[in-house]
Amino acid sequence: MSPRRELSRLRRLLSTAAVSLAIVSMSAAGQAPKSQPSAGAAPKSTPPTKGWTAARTPWGDPDLQGVWNDATSTPLQRPTGVASKDTLDDEEAAGFEKQLAYDLTRDRRDGGNAVDVNRAYNEHWMDARRLKITPDRRTSLIVDPPDGRIPALVAPTPERQRARNTRAAANRRFNAGMPDSHLDMSLPVRCIIRTDSPPYLPTIYNNDFQIFQAPGYVVIAPEMIHSARIVPLDGRPHLPKGFRQWLGDTRGRWEGTTLVLETTNFRTDEGVLFQNANPATFKITERLTRVGPSDLTYEFTVEDPTTWTRPWTARIPWTKIDPAEQMYEYACHEDNYDFVHFLTGARIREKKGEVVK
Amino acid sequence: MHNRLTTAVIALGTAAATSVFWLAMTPTAGQGTSQSQAGAGAAYRPVRMADGHPNLNGIWQALVTANWDLQDHEAQPGPHPEIMGAYGAGPAGQSIVDGGEIPYQPWALAKKKENLERRMVTDVSNDLKWHDVGDPELKCYMPGVPRATYMPFPFQIVQGSGPALLFAYEFTSSTRIVRMNSKAEAPSDAWMGWSRGRWEGDTLVVDVTGQRQETWFDRAGDFHSDGLHVIERYTPMSAYHLAYEATIEDTKVYTRPWKISFPLYRRMEKSVQLLEFKCVPFTEDMLYGRFRKNGGAE
Known about the structure:
Number of domains of chain B: 1
Distance between the termini of chain B: 40 Å
Strand content of chain A: 15-25%
Helix content of chain B: 10-25%
Order of helices and strands of chain A: HHEHHEHEEEEEEEEH
Distance between the termini of chain A: 31 Å
Structural class of chain A: alpha+beta
Strand content of chain B: 15-25%
Radius of gyration of chain B: 20 Å
Oligomer: heterodimer
Number of helices of chain B: 6
């Protein structure tokens, strides 16, 4: 099978309005769990490994350097089937994990030959770490609100509703294979941003993040697209409010051994910010805490009073990967052949008189 | 056709200009040294990391105009002066190539000229010919090495205590990891190549292989093949500048290895940071506009 076809499948997936939900529902397992916590309620935060003290860089910062992976099958939002539980016991966890793996299109035969071939095809690209739920056996990555669900939405202004409708119409044209132009494609399909914009959520593949540190800086380089987030730690103010970037503008500080990153100043243009948030009021705070030689806890809180009725928080375990594994360059725009295929295909179908319903 | 006399004069002029420059910038260096010797032999004692190696952390930028042309070039109008006026025009600049001229094999010199003529022709309608024409910079493709170093954008060196450094470039937010003392070969070709670093005294030497053959060196069509091998040298000359040089080998394209050199300057503005230059959206109308509905595309 050609990589291009796979890419088009991925891009189609990434292009839906519910980007993060789609990604997470397709997402995958962490590395083989190392230290299974004992049964019980979800810990408020991941406890540090016993007998381990956080290493420091020579200049005194907690040392987070290395390549980390955040794949897990645990969904962002708690599924209704486990609505009453934030963590599962051993038996429940096994069933939950199996069901998630099944939903991730592993080895199943329903849906006919074409569907089956597509699944097998996708399977090739799936991150091998995706089949496990989080080691603490949570039922959702969201830890707050306690129901594990994204809070209720604030009614959008007419202007934002119009923008959403415009975007939804573009997505419909794209999903129907009839994009009017490149602007009907989503930001990931256009190779403008993929998983490099916070929050970092598990996805089909390329769940790796390399953290670099230097005196006064932390840098997170996600694998899926080549942009790095370079975070100054010197307490400087954010860029002025009107100075917007696709990845926002991040400032960092240490709170004990936790790296706290605050990001604002996002732009979206015609695209979609995380969960349809409002770039003017969206703020994300990420907390990275190393809790063991090979374990790091990544927690993010998003707030946007014009989008959600309250802030919400998710927690994702990151696992240090084998140094023999490595980061690869993720080129996207440079060979975005399918981008043209989508457009030329649409023009051909147009000539045949096809229209988007 | 090529004018040998002109070439010789240019080469002489360039060599004289650069050596004067280097002597001026490195007053304590030995007399009559070549550029590289001047770089390596400078008496400046750089600030060091805990491991004893020079601290190269910072935001750096070249001030040469080599992105327009590595070799001597006069000021030039932009591609559409009728609408762009002086906005699109290119500055004049002196060659950063040791000896002035890139030692192309004859076929390759012809190819470079063809590249220049067709640098703004783009055609992405055929996958197999996708990369045949047009300057990759025009299309917002990752620039490769060494071009990333002298584009008119800053880049940041992130040097910590791990086994790798990160070089982050503002242009199209490209990055490359420099793996220190690595013996591993490039696992595949990449737009920014496969970089392995080592220290030679106070000089960071970066060996770059595995570069995609499609990158160019400048807007003048200077190019290489898949056999490109670049050896870069970063030498601190003061708290505020690095000497940069790159030796370029590619037996398929040149008659011998050749070298470029220029200084990199530390960006000193208060609170300076790398900003985003995600240029893909700036290229979409050019690359994909013809495939728009009612855009005249087949």
